[in-house]
Design goal:
heterodimer, A: 271 residues, alpha/beta, 2-enoyl-CoA Hydratase, Chain A, domain 1, 7-stranded mixed beta sheet, two-stranded antiparallel ribbon, globular, B: 266 residues, 8-stranded mixed beta sheet, 8 strands, 45% helix, 19% strand
């Protein structure tokens, strides 16, 4: 389900190259432009830290820390060392950052996945954070906003990763019964077991322009059907056209759009 | 465990003459009536839905169906569902709740079909919705993994109160070929992948992903389909005795907790 798509987050160093227009750009300019190419307008992937800066009001974010580890269910020694390596390199605990914060003064539970950590894939820890976050939204009567970016279920945890799809989807049921708003923001790329579980079960589904979103990876489909895929296949625009996305929102407008949806969602009929 | 034990299970689970869902359904249930269509776009034959009776109790049956010959394989899309199959399954889950009919599912698929049209019609969303619906359906649910259970395409109809596997069935995040291709960029390492993936019934029982293993007659279900059917039938009767003791609220709460803890603390 996971497909390697080389389109890195803004790397360290003064200069970066846009993968779309190949222009060499000054890193600070791109960062000031919200991680959007100053030449052609295509999107760089954002780390969860940058996304947090762009979306959440300053000094309002309180991160959840569950102190949990993957049980390494397939007993792969290289998996644990890879996790440790990624933790050192990215300073992230795992592929999702979750907590409570304010978005234009609207308090919400916020989960931000991060493609720099195992391609944002979902194993036990990610599934647990997402589920815990949804349960917190129910308990604290808050809306929840999840930014998805993921290659899908994490292969290294095998069937346990697959079971996270059940766990997270079931948590959405709790949210729906309690009447809490859920906004899902699909960003590049969102695939596999994340698309086929919590990420597409929101009340309102937004997507960033050009983001690749799908269930099966392009390579798998090409190999199965032996034909070339249409030009805009699995883009946010393709998903919008087929009715799976409420709105494609430019990065600069995301914060406003999210807070507006939170403000607009509550009705007052109590008959 | 013997070397290549997992791969030998993969081979048995995929045998062309391994009994399929309909072979069991016809033996287990009286008056099985297949009903069709997702009410939205099409009838997809990879998942069979219908109603049937066992010991004077009506059941909803939702089953992935591989073809038993080339003609049927074309009709069934080799047991690889398109979104319409999942939408049909959802329709039957909802109907089960309306009529208080317990649900029995049979899992046997290489995975959801990866195609252009499947993506255009929301394969990921259809699977997500099916999982969400099955998690919360307020009737007892029982899933049998009878052959291959691969990826979200299998899980979509496998989130049950009790998940039971036939001895030689396999259940995994992806096919061993796909797994090897993603992890090691080499689909030829399928045997190695199978050994690592913990996809056998014994492995999954130890991981608490499944609740019970059913022995196959003479070590292979195809040697005696009637006997295998009888075993599944008795299992349904026994499991329902226990599940019927729970009210709807208890049922849903237990199901939530079951999936809440898989992979976590003991």
């Amino acid at each position: 389900m996971i497909e390697e798509i080389s389109k890195p987050d803004i790397p360290v160093g003064k200069w970066i190259k846009c993968q779309n227009c190949k222009e060499i750009l000054y890193r600070d300019d791109v960062r000031a432009n919200l991680g959007v190419c100053t030449n052609c307008g295509s999107y760089f992937r954002l780390s969860s830290r940058r996304r947090l800066e762009q979306i959440v009001d300053e000094n309002t974010f309180e991160e959840f820390d569950l102190h949990i580890e993957s049980k390494n269910p397939l007993d792969m020694p290289e998996y644990i060392s890879k996790i440790e390596g990624l933790r050192n390199k990215t300073k992230l605990k795992e592929a999702v950052k979750c907590g409570i914060g304010k978005i234009s003064n609207e308090k919400a539970v916020i989960c931000i996945m991060d493609s720099n950590f195992f391609m944002g894939s979902m194993g036990y820890v990610v599934g647990e954070y997402i589920t815990y976050s949804i349960e917190q939204a129910v308990e604290k009567e808050l809306p929840i906003v999840i930014f998805a970016v993921s290659g899908g279920a994490r292969m290294q945890e095998g069937i346990i990763s697959l079971m996270q799809m059940a766990k997270t989807s079931n948590a959405v049921n709790k949210l729906n019964e309690a009447g809490n708003l859920y906004i899902s923001v699909l960003t590049d790329p969102t695939y596999g077991g994340v698309t086929a579980s919590f990420a597409t079960l929101a009340d309102v589904t937004l997507a960033e322009p050009g983001a690749l979103i799908g269930f099966a990876g392009k390579r798998v489909i090409e190999q199965t059907i032996n034909q070339k895929l249409p030009e805009n296949f699995q883009t946010a625009e393709f998903q919008f056209e087929h009715g799976f996305v409420d709105k494609i929102v430019e990065r600069k407008d995301l914060k406003d759009t999210i807070s507006k949806i939170i403000k607009l969602s509550k009705g007052d009929y109590n008959g | 465990m013997d070397k290549n034990n997992a791969w030998s299970k993969v081979e048995i689970a995929r045998q062309k003459d391994r009994p399929t869902s309909l072979d069991y359904i016809e033996n287990i249930f009286d008056d099985f009536l297949e009903l069709h269509g997702d009410r939205d776009f099409a009838e997809d034959g990879a998942i069979v839905c219908g109603i049937g009776t066992l010991n004077n109790r009506n059941y909803t049956i939702i089953a992935q169906q591989k073809g038993r010959d080339t003609k049927e394989n074309i009709k069934r899309n080799f047991g690889m569902p398109n979104p319409e199959s999942y939408k049909k399954a959802i329709r039957f889950m909802q109907q089960s709740e309306k009529f208080n009919r317990p649900i029995i599912t049979f899992i046997d698929t290489k995975g959801a079909y990866p195609g252009i049209e499947a993506e255009e019609r929301g394969q990921g969303y259809a699977i997500a919705k099916s999982i969400e619906t099955m998690c919360n359906v307020k009737v007892p649910t029982l899933s049998f993994v009878i052959g291959e259970g691969s990826s979200g395409g299998a899980l979509a109809i496998g989130v049950a109160d009790k998940v039971i596997m036939l001895e030689n069935a396999i259940y995994s995040i992806l096919s061993p070929e796909g797994y090897a291709s993603i992890l090691w960029k080499d689909a030829n390492k399928k045997v190695e992948a199978a050994e690592k993936m913990k996809l056998t019934s014994n492995d999954l029982y130890d991981l608490k992903v499944i609740d019970k293993i059913l022995k196959e007659p003479n070590g292979n279900a195809k040697s005696d389909v009637l006997k295998m059917s009888e075993t599944i039938k008795n299992e349904i009767i026994e499991q329902m005795k226990e599940l019927y003791k729970l009210n709807k609220e208890e049922l849903i709460k237990k199901r939530y907790e079951k999936y809440r803890v898989i992979g976590g603390e003991e």
